[in-house]
Amino acid sequence: MSSTDHPHRPAWFDISTPDAPRARRFYQDLFGWPVNVLDANYALVGDDDGQPSGGIGQASPDSPYTGLVAYFPVDDVDTALTRAEQLGATCVLSPTDTPVSRIAVFTDPDGNHVGLVSR
Questions:
Q1: CB of 57 closer than 8 Å to CB of 41
Q2: Burial annotation 47-61 (CB, 10 A radius, 16+ → b, else e)
Q3: The pTM is what?
Q4: Using one digit for the tens of pLDDT, what is the confidence trace for 52-100?
Q5: What is the DSSP pairing of strand 113-118 with strand 35-39?
Q6: CA angle (95 as vertex; 103, 21 as ends), nearest 5
Q7: β strands within the chain, DSSP E
Q8: How many Å apart are CA 80 and CA 77, to the nearest integer?
Q9: pLDDT of residue 37
Q10: In which order are the strands placed within the sheet that holds 113-118?
């Protein structure tokens, strides 16, 4: 199920929060992350070399989750999500295409949010 490039390392993270401007300030002050605000709902954060490694998003009342989600690379999001569900996971964000990838989020049997991403 894992991508052959980096099979055990997260490829991306998202922090979904009811107060994105506060979270952006907090993490920028804490870690010195550069923040690139894309719009009122989402900002990219990353290394000093300008490559984003994650994002901070504004959670709406109908958001599928809040909190931190690490996204792990897989070859096929739909196949990996099906396998996760067979192992006891529960889908909270169905496979969705973004401008640069396909993602999904599930909760593991202990309730932890885990993301899947394929580029």
A1: yes
A2: eeeeebebbbbbbee
A3: 0.87
A4: 999 999 999 999 999 999 999 999 999 999 999 999 999 999 999 999 9
A5: unpaired
A6: 50
A7: 12-17, 35-39, 42-46, 52-58, 67-73, 90-97, 102-107, 113-118
A8: 5
A9: 94
A10: 35-39, 42-46, 52-58, 12-17, 67-73, 113-118, 102-107, 90-97
Unique residue bearing structure tokens 């899947």: 116
C-alpha 60: how far from its chain's center? 16
Question: Over the stretch 13-44, which tens digit does the pLDDT of each residue have?
Answer: 999 999 999 999 999 999 888 999 999 999 99
- The distance between the two most distant Cα atoms of the chain, rounded to a whole number of Å, is 41
Query: 61 CB contacts (<8 Å, ≥6 apart)?
Result: none
Q: Can you say whether residue 51 is alpha, beta or left, with left for phi > 0 and alpha for psi between -120 and 50 degrees?
A: beta
What is the percent of the chain with per-residue pLDDT over 70, rounded to a whole number?
92
> How far is Cα 58 from Cα 52, in angstroms, rounded to an integer?
17
